[in-house]
Amino acid sequence: MFERLSWGHRARRVLSMLAEERGLLQSARLADLVSLSQKRDRLVDDLASRPGRSDEDTIAMLERIRSEARRNQRLIEAFRKGVEDARTQLERIEKSTTEIGLYSSSGSRLPDPPTRARSDRRA
Fold first, then answer.
1. What's the confidence (pLDDT) of residue 16?
2. For position 94, what pLDDT does the model report?
3. pLDDT top residue among 52 and 27
4. 41 has a pLDDT exceeding 80
5. Does residue 55 belong to any structural domain of this protein?
6. Residue 63 within a domain
7. What is the pLDDT of residue 13?
């Protein structure tokens, strides 16, 4: 797919994909993110297997790619942490619904009263 592209064009394409990835992360479009990251990974592997010239432009381009990749990695970590925090909060809410009970005037929890068998009698 990328065979005919020059090294510089491939590097610019990686930068473009990283920018697109950032947008997908920011809008939480995970299905699209998976597909894009697979394409990006193939292009990065191809780029790494065919090193460019060792001039300042190439070094600057590689640094831009590294910088954008680190930026996206921070977004991914923030996204992951947000999901983990949400999961923890949902677990707390779920747990609290089973722990509602009676409390004394000082705020300490009273033992649960014995459960009574209830019958639903109607006249």
1. 95
2. 83
3. 27
4. yes
5. yes
6. yes
7. 92
Question: How many domains would you assign to the chain?
Answer: 1
Does 83 fall in a domain? yes
The structure tokens listed for 123 are 């006249």
Three-state DSSP class for 66? helix
54: which DSSP letter? S
Q: In which domain, by residue range, is 46 found?
A: 7-96
Place of tokens 């910088």: 67
C-beta separation of 52 from 11 below 8 A: yes
* Residue linked to tokens 């780029």: 47
Residue 84's alpha-carbon distances to 19, 59, 91, in angstroms, are: 25, 37, 11
Do 109 and 102 contact (CB within 8 A), yes or no? yes
Lowest-pLDDT choice from 6-10, 25-29, 54-58, 112-116: 112-116
